[in-house]
């Protein structure tokens, strides 16, 4: 008796300590979740903080006198003259109007560097289109030079002004005050391909490239994945080869994606002679990579169709293939589509295999077909992130925001499909 | 005609075959008392005609398109006169690109020897001939197949069985693509790897402690023999993966425990998808984050406490990679913990153990094999991860265990060796395939072992 009571006593005395341990354990769990969620929050705020300026462009509106004498040009419809003419001069003159005190050659050169490097091309294009404008005065909007743009967007942060001289900073401040230099929504970013100059670079080329690649991936991977899943669930005999196929699918799902890049390089380029860096090639490689995901989720969807459906169809005389194609596959379709959309979202964000098959090339044109050189969103982000210029960092984060919004849309669509169409049996 | 134009054409012929056979099957059924006296529904006769039309044509088209480029190229190279015949593969690719550029009109013919211009003309002619042969053959096959199937629209033939058997074969081929992919991977790395070992002895590759894959461009160049020792790459990979696992395993495991044992249903419904979002973020985004935010932060922090840190430290890449695989570990361990039978839990609680004691002393030991399997899978993920390390880890192959130092990994080297200027046959490029082979073997082994453990563990409680 006494022995037992002391036992209970011991338990009671230890209770406090044990409860403390319990609380501590629970706290560990909460900390772990907090760490994970915090990293998510830090990741997103960091990218948004770095990237929102990517959606802003900085422009400079100038009264440009298209003086033929200054440009060494007396007939703008003459191609030879146009290729020799100096289109930088009118811009310098227009800028000089705002700062009449600048006269020295060196200072003028500094002043002219405020305008973007494509500003003179803009004048050239205008004159090539409308030669009769030679000699008139035009109000034109130019993109400012990248360093100026970065300086204007981050006016409160001295780290972004190091690439402008103090004199240039003073000029820019004055131009901003006069309203000559202004910021606006960056439509350039959404309407162009890549460029060497950040303020002139756009993401449209990469978006189109991604779209083309995804179409190829979808057209190959979805029907194949569904067909493979149907075979494995409904028709495959119980034998060694079927087991072997299953082992292969499970392993392929876990093979590092870069290995698929090696496959693309050696087989599709090396053996079949496909051209490098085209959407067809990227789509093929990504299709092989996504196939296991689609097969696995399609099999799960087929499995969830209840046997009663099959039995009913078989009972009224349908053949095995009719049961599958008329009843099982349509009923499993929402699940298959959900899985495929998630697989496609993964493929959309994949970079590594595409690096190996040459989709890292610098491509200015917007791709116009499945066989034209292209790059894709994640690769474009990678290219910009590894560029030295400050202006590219904000473009990379802006690109990330666009990529993430595509992926979130796709996943939301998958969730909606599942909620809307999936039946509970 | 281009391959891309032939595809819709085949489709059109198939549709026509479908329509004609459908009409014929109805016409055939008319005198014998309607379609109920046919062996199969008109749809199956029509579908069979479409299959007969499309499948042979598509197979021939795929084979032809796949090999025509290579065959023509080899023929053109063989036709070059003896003094221009390439001595090495590098020369061959140079001459070929010259020929291609001339043929495509990108290179002015006056800058190249007349033999090359001749070869370019030959190339053009061959391409044209091949294209017209291809188009004729494919269209002929499609029409013949359709015509044959059309004549076989007869009441006593069971078209349904034909169609179903064909479909079953198509399904089988689709499933077998998984095997073909594996075979493709193995073959694509194995040949280049063996050629690599012909240039660099395998022992040097496996046990060498220095990695600097600069090979001489010219034979007389000095001091650039190149060293291909994989040890520094493996230690670098292991260092970064170890840091990643040190982050991901405790955080992932503890959050799985909290979610499955303590969290209320609504909290779980919110937190779980949020955690899974971490897995959905593309790796290039993590790479960006690691290279531009975490790495400078770590360097500044280390400098403040008086340590010297590289701007491309292993720590930054490892930490971010750890965050990336948190959801991987947590969802795998969640599955495993939920698979432990409720009776074990109830028994322990009934004896008076607290929830954490139940967790630590009953559920965790029972779930341990499954969790180990999950960790192995996570490790294979970390080893094969590319973008984070390409962007945030360095290129210098340092043999070090200091996480503040810069290290390089297997995947980084594959990417650097294969992007940028390359001649296809140098030891440099071949080395990338050898590295790929090592990576494939290691991750495959980890996966096989992990899946085996997980499966065995599941069977234990099923």
TrEMBL record, chain A:
Keywords annotated in UniProt: Cell membrane, Membrane, Transmembrane, Transmembrane helix, Transport
GO CC terms in record: plasma membrane
Biological process according to GO: phosphate ion transmembrane transport
A single MF term (Gene Ontology): phosphate transmembrane transporter activity
Domain ABC transmembrane type-1: 207-414
Topology with respect to the bilayer: Multi-pass membrane protein
InterPro entries given in the database record: DUF3333, MetI-like, MetI-like_sf, Phosphate_PstA
Keyword presence, Transport: yes
Coiled-coil intervals, chain numbering: none
Alphabetical list of SUPFAM superfamilies matching this protein: MetI-like (SSF161098)
Transmembrane spans: 25-45, 203-232, 252-274, 280-302, 395-417
Subcellular location: Cell inner membrane; Cell membrane
Annotated family: Belongs to the binding-protein-dependent transport system permease family. CysTW subfamily.
Protein name: Phosphate transport system permease protein PstA
Organism: Marinobacter vinifirmus
From TrEMBL, chain B:
GO molecular function: phosphate transmembrane transporter activity
Pfam family for this entry, one: BPD_transp_1
Protein name (Swiss-Prot/TrEMBL): Phosphate transport system permease protein
Subcellular location: Cell inner membrane; Cell membrane
GO annotation, cellular component aspect: plasma membrane
Organism, scientific name: Marinobacter vinifirmus
Membrane-topology descriptor: Multi-pass membrane protein
Classification via InterPro entries: MetI-like, MetI-like_sf, Phosphate_PstC, PstC_N
